Amino acid sequence: MTSSTVGGAGSPAPITVTISGAGGQIGYAAMFRIASGAMFGPDQPVALRLLEIPQGVKGAEGAALELTDCAFPLLASVDIATAPERGFDGANVALLVGSRPRTAGMERADLLAANGAIFGPQGRAINDHAAEDVRVLVVGNPANTNALIAQRNAPDVPADRFTALTRLDHNRAVGLLAERAGAAVADISGVTIWGNHSTTQYPDLSHATVAGRPALDVVGAEWGRGAYADRVAKRGAEIIEVRGGSSVASAANAAIDHVRDWVLGTGNAAATSGAPAPWTSVSLPSTGAYGIPEDLIASVPARSINGQWQVVEGLSVDEFSRARIDASVAELAAERDQVAALGLI
Ligand SMILES: NC(=O)C1=CN([C@@H]2O[C@H](COP(=O)(O)OP(=O)(O)OC[C@H]3O[C@@H](n4cnc5c(N)ncnc54)[C@H](O)[C@@H]3O)[C@@H](O)[C@H]2O)C=CC1
Ligand SMILES: O=C([O-])CC(=O)C(=O)O
């Protein structure tokens, strides 16, 4: 709908980013940063596709007007769509943010059915219309199972292009650890979020370090495996209680971090230098690593190398961690069984 042209001769072709639920809060918080270059860097133009349902279109239209008013040099075009087929046409990156929130008295099966009605058709539209290199990040809850539904409805797209957001949980875990340890965020590494983006997730400090020292020694295992892990897992509810609304800017920031690291890489330099690369947490279709069944989309430690997520394998898992990982994976398996029973996958 609005349109401008970027760059001159030699400028790379724009990357098309589709945001579903673009008229909502996270979409609004994400799109200006994406248009400013936060996702792909200062030399890469972007084309934005804003996908909404009719009730949400006004929000997307208003945001598009403001995008024009920002005069972002990297923003090649903005289009608004209500049909997924058009919204995902040629998409290189798909951020699936719009979903059906749980309302009072709603059963989990009703929630999964309502989301199946969104993520099934969106998966099919991605399958049929997105660019060959499409990368999908599901933000809308229940994110892991919504990603599984979309993936199963897109049989022609490589399965590992479907991911769900646990980077927000990861960033929360890093931020809260740095705060407790009195350390800089840059001094923290080796944190992992395992399992589901839900309160069963396991924020794991077993391999984390603070300025090179084992994190569980720095903060104490009792706190690190107790109150801390609990607070990370329930941080979403804490934000809702304090703010009176769910996380928005931090969720948009995490989605941008996830896609930026996926496309630009977390470990390219280390892969060639032989130095250990930092990892992050990503909900990926399981490779079977760490005993996670292969048909689940579960959070694991991962690095992106040459544009592909690779699970960090071979980390030791003690009895405590095993039980916590298994509990969250069991919840994912139960969600998978429910959507399978509903015929959604
Ligand atoms: N994975 C994560 O870490 C996090 C996930 N979330 C989830 O992200 C989702 C979005 O959150 P907000 O932006 O705050 O919600 P919001 O309610 O402000 O926006 C959602 C938008 O999605 C649109 N929408 C609904 N169905 C759609 C469809 N079929 N196609 C296109 N658009 C559709 C709505 O019209 C609305 O504008 C929620 O499910 C929330 O629970 C939120 C924070 C963190
Ligand atoms: O519970 C919500 O809707 C928001 C959410 O996922 C989070 O903050 O982690």
UniProtKB/TrEMBL annotation:
Q: Which GO terms describe its biological process?
A: malate metabolic process; tricarboxylic acid cycle
UniProt domain Lactate/malate dehydrogenase C-terminal: residue ranges: 166-341
Which InterPro entries would you find in this protein's record?
L-lactate/malate_DH, Lactate/malate_DH_C, Lactate/malate_DH_N, Lactate_DH/Glyco_Ohase_4_C, Malate_DH_AS, Malate_DH_type2, NAD(P)-bd_dom_sf
Alphabetized GO MF terms: L-malate dehydrogenase (NAD+) activity
Keywords for this entry?
A: NAD, Oxidoreductase, Tricarboxylic acid cycle
Which residues are involved in binding substrate? R102, R108, N141, R172
Q: Which reaction does it catalyse?
A: (S)-malate + NAD(+) = oxaloacetate + NADH + H(+)
Active-site residues, Swiss-Prot/TrEMBL: H197
Highest taxon in the source lineage:
Bacteria
Residues that, per the record, bind NAD(+): G21, A22, G23, G24, Q25, I26, G27, N115, Q122, V139, G140, N141
Q: What is its EC number?
A: 1.1.1.37
Which parts of the sequence belong to the Lactate/malate dehydrogenase N-terminal domain? 17-155
| HAMAP family listed in its UniProt record | Malate_dehydrog_2 (MF_01517)
Q: Which family does it belong to?
A: Belongs to the LDH/MDH superfamily. MDH type 2 family.
Role, per record: Catalyzes the reversible oxidation of malate to oxaloacetate.
Q: Which NCBIfam families match?
A: MalateDH-SF1, PRK05442.1
Give the protein's recorded name: Malate dehydrogenase
